[in-house]
Amino acid sequence: MNRVVELMLEHAALRPRESLGVITMGQKHADRIDAAFRAALRERPELQDFFAEEAGPGRRYFIKNLERVQGDERDAIILTIGVAKRANGTVARTGFGPLNSEGGRRRLNVAVTRAKRRMSVVSSFGPHELTPGDPQTGTELLRRYLEFAQAQGEIDHVGRQQRSAELNGFERDVERALVERGIDVHPQWGFSHYRIDFALAHRERPGQMVLAVEADGDTYHNIRSVRDRDRLRQAHLERLVWRFHRVWASSWFADREGETDKIVKAWEQAILDTDPEPDPEPAVPQPSTEDAPVMVRRGPKPDVPVGLKTQEYTDEHFVGLCHWLMTDGLPLDREERITQALQEIGKRRGRVLVARLSRAIEIAQSLIDQEEN
């Protein structure tokens, strides 16, 4: 609630020519935000003109729940979820009221299309804390929208269950074995334009899929073109920081228990790879291998915090840091730049972190190329 009020006041101060709307899940949450906002506005008299009732239509603001938002459009919209996590860290799907009732998908569709210029989402939980469910409900659509927002609009990072066909006997047996081991299994999980046979969820964050399991028949994969296609698919998923495990029908029927153990082991390793790293040890400066020190000419170092969890760093943090490092003009390869960046933020090398830094280096190089031209 406090964050929503901060964003409202910030909008009035920085973008006074743009109209503003706040959309909540329920009326009680809307009332609480309105009360907190009016109290805060009394301390900011210079902003009161923006929120005055007599302001023109282009500057008027509103605070409404999603059941009352219909044709209203504003330049900027703040969508606030207003649902808290339970003690175990998950989110109850029953807490979203109108999204679970008939017309919930339509209501959410209306809410997320009211912004003409920019959309902000305020939530105390991420999409990974919300268990995937019935695709026909507004709550499942909200989970996907939060995933989309967290991925900063990259649709390739949004997954969902796509039960387009019944599982065969082999696939049903794999699913049964994994459920018996206490794993949250989602068959036929859609990711981008792919369908994964089984997506295995994080033990503590049921909406975060950490392992893709393909249950493949031997005859099907003896066809060369199909093998080549699946290698490309696996490579694409791994670039998107998924871990990948394949189980063959012949191996499964020969040793069901052993193959299940392999999947469980891969799942547990995938959880370790996606969990935050422990507090890093202080970085030890490495002695130079050069006969003489290299003079580095860089501008002011960007304000990038040291020692945060990987998910707490924004893309802007990483791009700014890599851009600053690369302005030294030295002919260093990507691995050396990644090592430099890790030392600057006091982090150890990890799969997710390296993938994000690699992408930041590509963006930073593109920016440098534009500056030179």
Offer a quick outline of the entry.
By secondary structure, the protein is α/β, with parallel strands linked by helices.
Supply Rg. 25 Å
Q: What coarse outline follows from CA principal-axis ratios? A: flat
Report strand order across the widest sheet.
Answer: 5-6-7-8-9
Separation, N- and C-terminal Cα atoms: 46 Å
Instruction: Return the string of H and E elements.
Output: HEHEEHEHEHEEEHHEHHHHH
Largest β-sheet summary: 5 strands, mixed
Secondary-structure-derived class: alpha/beta
- Spans of at least 5 consecutive residues whose pLDDT stays below 50 are 218-225, 288-295
Mean pLDDT: 79
| Helix fraction bin | 40-55%
Strand content range = 15-25%
What is the helix tally? 12
Quaternary structure: single chain
**Using DSSP, what is the number of strands?**
9
